[in-house]
Design brief:
By secondary structure, the chain is an alpha/beta fold. The protein contains eight helices and six strands, in the order βααααβαβαβαββα. It has a six-stranded parallel beta sheet with strand order 3-2-1-4-5-6, with helices on both faces.
Amino acid sequence: MKALVFDFDGLLMDTETTLVEGWRAVWAAHGLTLDLGDGFWPDHGGDGTADRLDRLGAVVGAGYDRAASHRRFRAERERLHRTLDLCPGIREWLADARSAGLPCAVASSSPLPWVRDHLTRAGVFDWFSVVATGDEVAAHKPDPAVYHLALDRLGVSPAAAVAVEDTPHGVAAAQAVGMPTVAIPNPFADRALFTRADLVLTSAADLSLADALTRLQTA
């Protein structure tokens, strides 16, 4: 293997939990309980904020202040992000990759400022040789465009780079390019939907990077 390519949201940092807690605070402000079913999670990458605000407005009805609800969501999520670190085991994987001279990349459907700011706060942005993001491509995962971009920038073939993903649509995007894929489902993903991944872990802390790559090659 010549490179590792990581998704960002829910994989490098648990921004999926901060998203849920942010929306829970907004729903609670209206005396409601957030339902994580019924289309809350899209089957693609990218920003679902507008759809969630529409969904809330349909429940609240008259008097709904869309802008105020959006501000409340952002404020709560930003508060949670102040103490957010890398997911368990990820820092060790990145450090081991650096020690081994194995280039790391990010391939995310989120925009560059979002990815850059979080990884800079965590002190690891410059650990990545390549960052490819959703604002640079025409379509989000499961479309493989962002993986093509990351691989182009790395200068490696799909078969020589391992993708690490936390969602089924992320796994589909990586495998559409022909990359072997490790899945580490985020806390809200259904593990039963990861049958296409070559290796599924509960956490990056389950195995060292070397052991994970060995298991992947023998899977």
